């Protein structure tokens, strides 16, 4: 596949949560699924929606809205699951992220990307790789590895105990 | 390409080394067994040979020293001693580390080389001329003194068995050059099963016989998997003094070759012993061809005999090959098998969907097809799962070594007995069992079995015994580790349990309950922390590893008599028969093997129990765990709930669910890293409709509730 060098590519998949537009490096995205039946896993944090069957593998799905302390939304026809491959302790883990809707694949040159602002966003700045400028709008480029980092597992652990 | 070959060599050598370890340990017990010595020698020889071939020169050089000593042992010049075996085991370990390229201790290697060199009693004088007469008897008598090496399985050459006709004529004066013909023949004999015929026709009458001349020549039929070069190598130093003709008469490649081989006349013809004309003439007469040939004096009797032997050998080789055809094995990387099992797992899932869909359509033809698919899938599943099954004996032999080394270290005399080594278990299970088993055996040796003098004082045999058994029982395998040591100290455990706050001082516990305390985290009774066990990783780690294999462990003991630890492990980790239930609109699966029965739980029952979670099943009180509460359900419970009564290590525990759905073949999937710390769930499975159901870890749930109640 050509997009395996995606780490360095300038393409981003954009999606919406509420009114905010987010971007993910295309290399981290494996596929986008329609919303399907998610099996809830008891004793996990609220942002963990549950698990789905991805062609025979059991893949956990996270609700990014809840993860980012936004209000939970009703699932609509546009709701989709972005299947990402994240690095966790040096291992690749497949993980689904729930988004309100997927927008487009965006080309962003390095000069179109500004460093993450120290304040002003609702998200912890750790999660943000940079701000992409798309005409008059900003796209929040996520560092998805950080979003579900080791501390997150710890959180899963402590709330499960 | 070379890397790939090196990899193959590594694998093969690892196998050889493990065989070697077994042979050495056996040899230690029966030092007189020359077959074992030969086996050890062959292993060393193969490691050396193929090591050199694939560029592992260090291994070849090192192994050479050991091989030299075993060659002498084989010839009865060096005795098998305990020290020799110990050194050989150390050498085996050294080869193993050279092979892996890890923790190479060069000083140790040199030390061993010196030790082995010292075992060689002086340099052997170059080929003595005086030849023992019986040694020359090779082929003169039908029974060759050197047993053909037992089934060639030990010589893991990639080559197939091939049969060669070797015609050997030595120079008359070859003995004067210091060559021993019997040595050559013996070397040849080691290559594989063989038949030799010596031709004595050239021996002159006694008055003309020069005793230092060689008048014999030989026909040898040899079946070997070592290839033509190995045969030529035997004669490498005498090439100039012999007439050697080697023909491949059966290359071993053609599995369809008829068992029948050429007729005797054809063989002689092919050897050039008779001409077509002579053969035709004789064929005119009506006796068995062999007899006719002898009668007609065209061919001397021994030539016929030799040809007959050729016929016999090739027939035997071909018959054997036919028989083995089905038993031949193929080396397949483990991950390919894992992939196959994964695919079968998916197939099982799809098949379940098909059956479900067919049932709903009410189309009898479709139902018939679905049933056929179901049958095939079940067969395919069983078959592919059985491919990953290995006999547990592979680990047992490792333990033999462990016991040997440890008992030396501890100054105790301990014997390990095993039974049921052929019991088969999933490969992954065997691998994961290794560490806990090592720990348990160490424990038995260190804490269980007493020192010889203590044993003698207690009126026991000085030699302690650890008995390792494995046996199938239902869909699981039961492994026991039994020692005849001092047993567990019931009171000491009880005290310690109280001290650690695990139990209250006035608790009334059965013996089993007390013994099982040793599996609690942070429990260790050993007063002195020794090198062997008690390094902080206690029995709780063992317990956890067994739990992770969905197994159970229990201990039984009698003070002064010994302890028995029993481990039950499911046959496979991949698929489990389960009972599907629903709680709060989600599906969950429980392993069917622990389910005893299902009973109803009405509101009235709950009210009657006055808030206690107990249900009356045929006058027996069974505690239950309401899963709705456990999983923080939000929806309203149904009017009548169901209690699934399970048997957990002898205790009956109920699990309250909304509904019992039915039986399900669950292909076990891991929940992945994100959920690995979720307690009470051991995995997930995919249902017929494609949704995910979670598999309950009933043991853990029960324990958790128990702890909360305490």
TrEMBL record, chain A:
UniProt-listed Gene3D superfamilies: CheA-289, Domain 4 (2.40.50.180), SH3 Domains (2.30.30.40)
Where in the numbering of this chain does the CheW-like domain appear?
9-153
Q: What are the GO BP annotations of this UniProt entry? A: chemotaxis; signal transduction
Looking up InterPro entries in the UniProt record yields:
CheW, CheW-like_dom_sf, CheW-lke_dom
A single cellular component GO annotation: cytosol
The record's section on Pfam families has:
CheW
Q: What is this protein called?
A: CheW protein
- Which organism was this protein described from? Malonomonas rubra DSM 5091
Automatic annotation (TrEMBL), chain B:
State the EC number(s).
2.7.13.3
Q: Name one GO molecular function term.
A: phosphorelay sensor kinase activity
Q: Where in this protein does the record say Phosphohistidine is found?
A: 45
The segment(s) forming the CheW-like domain are: 575-707
Q: Which Pfam families match?
A: CheW (PF01584), H-kinase_dim (PF02895), HATPase_c (PF02518), Hpt (PF01627)
The domain of life for this entry's organism is Bacteria
Q: Report the SUPFAM superfamilies cross-referenced here.
A: ATPase domain of HSP90 chaperone/DNA topoisomerase II/histidine kinase, CheW-like, Histidine-containing phosphotransfer domain, HPT domain, Homodimeric domain of signal transducing histidine kinase
* Keyword Kinase among UniProt keywords: yes
Q: Main role?
A: Involved in the transmission of sensory signals from the chemoreceptors to the flagellar motors. CheA is autophosphorylated; it can transfer its phosphate group to either CheB or CheY.
The protein's name is: Chemotaxis protein CheA
| Record organism | Malonomonas rubra DSM 5091
